[in-house]
Write a structure and sequence with these properties.
Blueprint lengths: L9 H9 L45 H13 L4 H7 L4 H7 E3 L8 E3 L4 E3 L1 H9 L7 H16 L6 H14 L2
Parallel strand pairs: 1-2
Antiparallel strand pairs: 2-3
Amino acid sequence: MRCAGLGAVLALILGACGGDAGSGAPTCKPGPAPANSTTCEPRLPDCWAPGWKPPRTAPHACTEAQIVEDFAKCWESFDPQCDEFQRDPANAACLKCLFSTRDEPSYGAILLLSKSYLSNVPGCMALIDGDTSSTGCAAKYQAYFACVDDACGQSCISHEQYSECTNRAASDMC
């Protein structure tokens, strides 16, 4: 099984939310950007430390049809029926299992970040290798993603700036 892109997490989603199959957010914020700064630069708060959020599992929360429908209507291309799908109470448990934000105690298959989203590859790794501990490989991989988002998420305005900043953070500090 591979867990690389949004479409590829279908197997993870079915395992975690469909079939039977720590704290990542910083507690302090980076200081303001220098007054003469016209671009966003990666910077982490002095008190930044990685944390671990294990993968969320809710067996039978989603059917394969719900996952395919959500992807087709809400992610693959714009479909006005996306809002209707997301407001339908019959899809609430599935969507709660699929999506999460950094402030939650565990992560779903897709992590919504400040200016982007990620497939929860670390969660996939933990479910596959069975190590959901805070010292496992998945926890270390998750810390890397938290680092690049925390270094750039507060200071970058556009998606393009954010993307460039996270590339610099990945090669310099994370």
